[in-house]
Write a structure and sequence with these properties.
STAS_dom_sf; Transcription Regulator spoIIAA; globular; 40% helix; single chain; 3 helices; four-stranded parallel sheet
């Protein structure tokens, strides 16, 4: 089963727990094989956001869930490339 969530707003230290709860509820608490995360409404991610995605990826992998990040803006895509995470996630930018 494929599950898709849409994230909105900036992902920063002060709101990281909110995003972590949303990601866990929409993937780990429900049955899914693939989680698609639409990031078209995310303008900025700080280091805590990057670390959150890495943490969630490890948790997803333990449960056999594949993650696909979709519609990243150019700055977030550049950040993932700069910190060598572009190969860690399936990224679909259409």
């Amino acid at each position: 089963m494929i599950n898709k969530i849409i994230l909105q707003g900036d992902i920063q230290l002060f709101n990281i727990m909110e995003y972590e709860k949303k990601l866990k509820y929409n993937s780990l608490e429900k049955y899914t094989d693939i989680l698609k995360i639409d990031m078209s409404n995310v303008g900025y991610i700080d280091l805590s956001g990057v670390l959150l995605f890495l943490k969630m990826k490890r948790e997803y992998k333990k449960r056999g869930i594949k993650i696909c990040l979709e519609k990243l803006n150019i700055n977030i895509l550049k950040l993932f490339k700069e910190v060598n995470l572009i190969d860690e996630f399936k990224i679909k930018n259409i």
